[in-house]
Design a protein that fits this description.
RNA-binding, eight-stranded mixed sheet
Length: about 475
RNA sequence: UCCUCCUUAGCUCAGUUGGUUAGAGCAUCUGACUGUUAAUCAGAGGGUCGUAAGUUCAAGUCUUACAGGGGGAGCCA
């Protein structure tokens, strides 16, 4: 018989027909005459209840069925005689597809710590929490593609292996086919990369932005959505060595158009999650609420769905770096010396604590900071006429901090070339990028959204290692 | 990379000012129960207290080193 997925079964309004269902056992409860199995196949957070009448044959099978076992069940879909669910499956034939030895299977029908599950990453998808995150992650990927497609953007595949080492976004992972035990050397003792696969040193990309700019200067509106690699020794709840980034790039956009797009996109995907992932969000919300109970009253945060709606319904606050410095400098927090790094002079980079103060204490909503000092930002950002600032824009979210970093790009050849020289970026490695400013240059802008940081916000999870199936972080490559 | 905390049963945790035989819930096994909802009730098995060394009459408890993990900071998305 053809299998029906559990989300379909639970939606059924007409009961009383024969079906087949397959899935993994979440719990089994028994009494003298009847046993109940909660079965889940990942199509929904909800389980279907399988009812098994006790007889000699079923007794033997049930002894081998424990949490984690895979089953195929033929039976009648009927209205439930119990009160916890609308429909259930009255089993006529049970088949064990795969047993799970209860003395070895690590997952139990109870709450496990996220730390424990991280060490069981090969099985954690089978928990309610991680299957919910998996489904939401898919929905967000789809929503992002839909958002851009509906607005006439083209998706571009930027390269994963790159020969450019001047993107300046962070430490890079080297890619080589040279024999590490026996590296070819030049007469001066340095490694001879002309003998390497590409004839030069190669790395994994840290950003697709520069390539996206090339595409935008022909296709007008493009976006990348691909893996990104940073070899920084970052050990935090919001950094990964391998993460997915969305980088739209638009010709004829200025910084204000860029901010509008960023805000629209974030609101669109939040709305999409509320529309399509409510079951999973409600589960994660309940889970969070239980965790929050253990916290002090003033450390508790807004309920997950309420928080998503709040961001959706309120315009983001847009202020300049200079205005932010004034707010921080004159804040009681600064005067009472509650910041670890006190704000004194214009020009300093903002610390996490300052960003959090602006978002969580002062404005109490997402903030877009613009026009940063040029010395703390990348070489490609559009220089303002004041000679001090650039048209950068960072979107700051509660709890997460920077979720988007973007800017209008410098389109004037001479200004870009001068800035590269000032920052010691070798022109010969970036000649192709500079040429776009030589031929038919136009104002353009773009931004980068860290996909896992978006996932942190949508799911309310606290650690970025829990919103990507197989996290890559320093000293960790087990799965 | 820096600072800080944690490691006790398969899992989550308790373990007093160092003191006799290290506890609980869940899970597992046995039994009871006419439909349960992370079922319930009764009983059983399960631990060289992360590893190594030290202090002490005595260490799960104190000290040091190492390992694994968490949180915070920096770098950023």
């Amino acid at each position: 018989m053809k299998r029906t997925e559990i989300n379909e079964l639970l939606k059924t309004t007409e009961a009383g027909h024969k079906i087949n269902v397959k899935g993994w056992v979440r719990t089994k409860r028994g009494s003298k005459n009847v046993s109940f199995i909660a079965l889940n196949d990942g199509s929904t957070i909800n389980n279907i209840q399988v009812v098994v009448e006790m007889n000699e044959e079923n007794d033997k099978l049930l002894e081998r069925i424990h949490t984690g076992a895979a089953l195929s069940v033929d039976g009648m879909l009927i209205e439930s005689a119990g009160s916890g669910q609308r429909v259930e499956v009255q089993a006529t034939k049970l088949e064990i597809l795969g047993e799970a030895n209860p003395n070895e299977y690590p997952l139990q029908p109870k709450k496990h710590s996220l730390e424990f599950l991280r060490e069981k990453a090969h099985l954690r998808y089978r928990t309610s929490t991680f299957s919910a995150i998996g489904r939401i992650r898919h929905a967000m990927i789809f929503a992002i593609h839909k958002f851009f497609n509906d607005r006439g953007f083209y998706n571009v595949h930027s390269p994963i292996i790159t020969g450019s080492d001047a993107e300046g976004a962070g430490e890079m992972f080297q890619v080589t086919t040279l024999d590490l035990e026996n590296m070819p050397k030049n007469p001066d003792g340095k490694i001879d990369f002309s003998r390497d696969f590409f004839g030069k040193a190669a790395n994994l990309t840290v950003s697709g932005q520069l390539e996206a700019e090339l595409a935008a200067l022909a296709l007008s509106k493009v976006y990348t959505f691909g893996p990104t690699f940073r070899a920084e020794n970052s050990n935090t709840t919001r950094h990964l060595a391998e993460f997915w980034m969305i980088e739209p790039e638009m010709a004829f956009y200025d910084i204000n158009d860029d901010m509008d797009l960023a805000e629209d996109m974030l609101k669109y995907v939040i709305d999409y999650a509320l529309e399509h992932c409510m079951d999973d969000l409600l589960f994660l919300s309940k889970r969070l609420e239980e965790e929050e109970k253990n916290k002090k009253a003033d450390e508790r945060s807004m309920e997950l769905i309420e928080k998503l709606r709040f961001v959706l319904d309120n315009p983001f606050e847009r202020i300049t770096y200079t205005e932010a410095i004034d707010i921080l400098k004159n804040s009681n927090h600064n005067k009472k010396k509650k910041f670890q790094y006190l704000i004194e002079d214009w020009g300093a980079d903002l610390q996490s604590e300052h960003e959090r103060y602006l978002v969580e204490k002062h404005f109490k909503k997402p903030v877009i900071l613009t026009n940063y000092p040029k010395d703390i930002k990348a070489f490609y950002m559009k220089q303002n006429d004041d000679g001090k600032t650039v048209r950068a824009m960072d979107v700051l979210f509660p709890q997460i901090g920077e979720i988007i970093g973007g800017s209008q790009r410098e389109e004037v050849y001479s200004k870009l070339a001068d800035r590269m020289a000032e920052m010691h970026i070798p022109e010969e490695s970036m000649w192709w990028y500079l040429e776009t400013r030589k031929f038919g240059t136009v104002p353009h802008a773009g931004f980068g959204l860290g996909f896992e940081r978006l996932m942190l916000f949508i799911t309310g999870m606290g650690n970025i290692r829990d919103v990507i199936p197989f996290p890559r972080t320093p000293q960790n490559l087990e799965f």
